[in-house]
Design a protein that fits this description.
184 residues; mainly alpha; Four Helix Bundle (Hemerythrin (Met), subunit A); elongated
């Protein structure tokens, strides 16, 4: 179980670290469509991070039953499916690199969907007294993979943003400031 608990607690921190380019100073009173898009990306990540953190907190402590682990796993699966759906729904930001940004999020969404399938297989194939440990290990590996995938997507966004339009939007986004802890 320790691996699963650590993964559930580490992934939100990893998301915060890899998204650290999203925060910063700046601001104006009106938002561009790129800022609205950045708010959508970071808002979705905030919601996911919160759900995954809550799932991890729900199974910390002493001995856990398979039902407790399964409930936490379902919370992670639901949050990840919602993140994937939300990212797909954002569409293309109105920037020069908008198409690449949309493609990066579409790819990430597909990867997250595959990760949820991987978690489903682990849960469906688990039985017996060690099932909770097997499920936890599989979910921990999937969460680590998700963290890497989110990092890669954000790196792709950064590389595609040659004019800095998305970077500016992320820096001005209240949701991104909340994600990185640099907002008020």
């Amino acid at each position: 179980m320790p691996w699963f608990r650590r993964s559930l607690l580490i992934v939100p921190l990893a998301v915060m670290l890899i998204a650290s380019g999203c925060g910063g100073s700046g601001g104006g009173s009106s938002k561009s469509s790129a800022e609205t898009w950045a708010d959508g990306v970071c808002g979705s990540l905030n919601t996911w991070k919160s759900s995954v953190t809550d799932a991890g907190a729900s199974i910390t402590g002493g001995s856990m039953s398979q039902d407790q682990v399964t409930s936490a796993v379902n919370q992670v699966k639901d949050a990840t499916s919602k993140l994937s759906s939300d990212l797909k729904g954002l569409g293309r930001p109105d920037t020069e690199s908008g198409q690449q940004a949309q493609e990066a999020l579409t790819k990430l969404s597909s990867q997250l969907d595959a990760d949820v399938d991987q978690i489903n297989q682990a849960v469906e194939g688990a039985s017996g007294p060690t099932a909770a440990v097997g499920i936890a290990t599989s979910v921990g590996a999937a969460l680590s993979q998700m963290s890497t995938q989110v990092s890669a997507a954000l790196s792709t966004l950064d590389q595609a943003d040659t004019k800095g339009e998305l970077n500016d939007a992320f820096q001005n986004s209240d949701a991104c400031k909340q994600l990185t802890g640099s907002g008020s």
